[in-house]
Write a structure and sequence with these properties.
Blueprint lengths: L1 H19 L6 H9 L3 H10 L18 E3 L8 E5 L6 E5 L8 E5 L18 E8 L4 E5 L8 E2 L5 E4 L2 E6 L2 E6 L5 E5 L3 E3 L1
Parallel strand pairs: 1-8, 2-7
Antiparallel strand pairs: 2-3, 3-4, 4-5, 5-6, 8-9, 9-10, 10-11, 11-12
């Protein structure tokens, strides 16, 4: 019985294929001519359709604007500031001995990756970001030592010790001036560039 159903199904399939040929010609010729357009037709169709591109302007440079050199305000190899809203406490620190120079901002941000094995459990993890003078960017393990700092004016670009930082409404950016690698940190997000 099972083979009869298979034979009936097979015949039904053949009748459907045969019914597709409308000109009475062979189904093979009909399938070949309608399924694959010639290469010449495909090329002509692409040549006739111009590709229109709309230039997308680059995002605004967060570091645009004149930079205020605050090197004269560096005390003991460090310049400290806070974001205009007080959310982030930042420091630009010169290289000293085995320690690389860096720009660091400390404050709570969202979606921090898991703690690496190199960050001791006793240390706070991910409560800030840092870029060093080789352009390496990472999350903060530990805390910034307390220092006197004043809020910088919103949208002011500051430059010291080979780093540039700027604080816009809700987010602070810092980068290494040589590599131009750095970070953006905000309470609800962060980015590495």
């Amino acid at each position: 019985m099972r083979w009869r159903y298979a034979a009936v199904a097979g015949l039904a399939g053949l009748s459907l294929v045969a019914g597709c040929a409308s000109d009475g010609g062979s189904t093979a010729a009909s399938a070949t001519s309608s399924a694959a357009p010639s290469t010449a037709n495909a090329t002509a169709a692409h040549a006739a359709t111009p590709i229109v591109t709309t230039p997308v302007p680059p995002p605004p440079d967060p570091f645009a604007g004149p930079a205020q050199d605050v090197s004269a305000a560096v005390v003991a190899g460090r310049y400290s500031f806070t974001s205009p809203d007080g959310t982030f406490r930042c420091a630009i620190v010169s290289a000293s001995g085995a320690h690389a120079g860096s720009a660091t901002c400390q404050g709570i941000t969202a979606s921090v990756p898991p703690r690496p094995a190199t960050c001791a459990a006793a240390q706070p993890w991910g409560d800030g970001m840092q870029v060093d003078d080789s352009g390496r960017v990472g999350y903060l393990c530990g805390t910034l030592p307390p220092a006197e700092s004043a809020p910088i004016v919103a949208d002011s670009v500051i430059h010291a010790l080979g780093f540039t930082c700027v604080a816009h409404a809700g987010s602070t950016y810092c980068r290494d001036d040589v590599s131009e690698h750095g970070f953006r940190i905000a309470q609800d997000s962060h980015a590495v560039f």
